[in-house]
Design goal:
Blueprint (H helix, E strand, L loop, with lengths): L5 H8 L2 E4 L7 H15 L9 E4 L15 H7 L19 H14 L23 H8 L3 H4 L3 H5 L12 H11 L3 H6 L12
Cofactor: Mg(2+)
Protein name: ATP-dependent DNA helicase
Keywords: ATP-binding, DNA damage, DNA recombination, DNA repair, Helicase, Hydrolase, Nucleotide-binding
Length: 199
Amino acid sequence: MSKVSGSAEVLCQCHLIIWGECTMSHRGTIEAVDKTLQDIRGNNKSMGGVTLVLSGDFRHALPIIPRRTRFDEIKACIKFSHPWNKIQKFPFNGDKCAEQFSTWLLQLGNGKVPFDGNGDINLAYIAIMVNSPPELKNRVFPDLNNNYNSHKWLCERAILAPKDKTCIYWYLYAKIYRHLTAAMLESFSRTNRPQDLFF
């Protein structure tokens, strides 16, 4: 990454980086991010002085090292990286929904989730099922015309989809973008890529 690139400029201006599911990352990635931020920001503090929030659960996922042993996977996890000793750890004390979801995931991982009549896992316990992309848009972004300007409202919702032009990502982006008015777009004028607002 060039120090004069748009990405480098964003990293120089940011105050917070949130890295979800970091436990799947190889220790080398966090070390590379640390060195990159120090270099781009011209700051020798850990992570170039940026607050980095790491979230994840080591029980759920460790980095996968092809054709290696479990010991190699453990040694590759971020707990063995140089920046790990400087990280302040906080236990997760989540809300009831997160607790229920966590319990369900543990049951799934332990093979204790009951199957339906077809031998499939019933996802209705953890997800709202929809039949079409427009229904998905309406469930995730209800009343978009009145709430588009609320950062809190927007931060409480997301549609996770792969960034692939041939997939649902672009379909959803087009459907949601079509609902935005000129006033909405003007309020988002600070971004160069409108699709980044939603995905």
